[in-house]
Amino acid sequence: MADDPKTTQSLFGPRVRIAPSPTGWLHIGTARTALFNFLFARKNGGKFILRIEDTDKERSKKEYEENILEGLKWLNLYWDEGPDISGPYGPYRQSERIEIYKEYLLKLLKEEKAYYCFCSPEEIEAQKKDMALRGLTPIYSGKCRSLSKKEAEEKIQRGEKYVIRIKMPQKKIKFKDLIRGEIEFDLSLIGDIVIAKSLEEPLYNFTVVIDDYLMKITHIIRGDDHISNTPKQLVLQEMLNFERPLYAHLPMILGPDRSKLSKRHGEMALTEYKKLGYLKEAMINFLVLLGWHPSSDEEIFSLEELIEKFSLERVQKSGAVFNHLKLDWFNSFYLKKIPFEEIKERFFDYLRENKSELLKNYSKDYLAGILKIEIPRINKFSDLFHISKFFFEEELNYPKELLIWKDSSLEHTLKALEDALKLLNEIEEKDFTALNLQTKIMIFIEENSFYKNDRGKFLWPLRVALTGEKFSPPPFEVMELLGKEKTLLRIKKAINLIKI
Hints:
There is one protein chain. The longest helix has 25 residues, at about 475-500. This protein has helices at about 30-45, 60-75, 100-110, 120-135, 150-155, 205-215, 230-240, 270-275, 280-290, 305-310, 325-335, 340-355, 355-360, 365-375, 385, 410-425, 435-445, 450, 455-465, 475-500; strands spanning about 15-20, 45-50, 115, 165, 170-175, 180-185, 195-200, 200, 220-225, 245-250, 255, 320. Among the domains are: about 265-335, Glutamyl-tRNA Synthetase, domain 2 (Orthogonal Bundle); about 340-385; about 400-500, Arc Repressor Mutant, subunit A (Orthogonal Bundle). The model has no long low-confidence stretch (mean pLDDT about 95). The strands form 5 sheets. A 4-stranded antiparallel sheet has the order 3-4-7-8. By secondary structure, it is of the alpha/beta class. Helices cover about 45% and strands about 10% of the residues.
């Protein structure tokens, strides 16, 4: 192989692709890869292509493809060419390209660079075990390499099952990775790989080479779990006289224990994060820092800023740890940064998709009010329904001891609640606003020597009576949202609880 092989060039900027397989939901790793490809294309004036690799007929499902598209659109990673957008190099769904692959399979067979293999799985397993026992690398022995064209055709006519293998050259092959530098493989340790189960059933390493060439992909930016596939694809490119794209392998995403991120670390489909109420800005900001770092200490970036700053040179080689607490921090930041009116509309969209019954049972003003006072305490929308359940419950259940402030007593607590009930009962419904309630209560506390030196004696039992919680927003905002009737009712129930 030449040390300086031909590489794919484009006069109109780079062409990159994300090529997910619809055999499962869109997960964090694929979303991160899509983001890096998108940023690279936009930064360099290129094209971002979406290709659906659905040749696995048994496992590919329409709902998985729809989930992939939904997740990418949620992150605003819109593609220039894809299965739903016309483009010059379609179709962009592999199941619609079978005849194209068949043409190239026949070409390799005709040129005797590939061959039909009739060895059964059991026979191949036995071959590999024998090689391992002899201290050799357990690869396919090449038994069917020597079959003549006539012998192969006769076996096919008899209905014998076959696969198609390539004749792997016995040499070393290397490529320059844009992130990891030069990488070299010994092809003799790989063996004659299978590239198709039949002429109508091509496999991944073959189809990806054909598609990348025909779609004029210039840069392949993907996870480092694909490094082992690269030499196989380089060989196929050589056999077909294709130009070689440039490769960049992204670092693996790791769990907190630095093993590969998995379900046991809480990893889930990207759309599940959306259902939990994470914002796309936070997810983008979080994903980009899983393996890339800016030239400064900045951590907060809009998508537009990332397009301007992104470069493959700043992608790290070592694994990137997925930290849920960091994601929560980003989301909490954006909940506070984005104007409330916009957050409110997104919250209603979230409710329509996930908790539509709340929109039927409560007014938008009430729900928006809860969101507004709870934003300082939540990391994502779904948190609201755990820490603010008292806004949606008619009966609060809590031990009466929770009403007691520090070293106070039930007797003093009862006095505080009875004072609060009397004071609040005198305030008209129209004046039941947080500001007015705070003013009236604070004046009362300052004028009452029993509470003046320790406001908690009054405010703590009042807040617990309203929420039943040790931690909650200030009682004034809570009372405004609950309204006068419900506020007085909860205080009365707290008084009765103490008297029992």
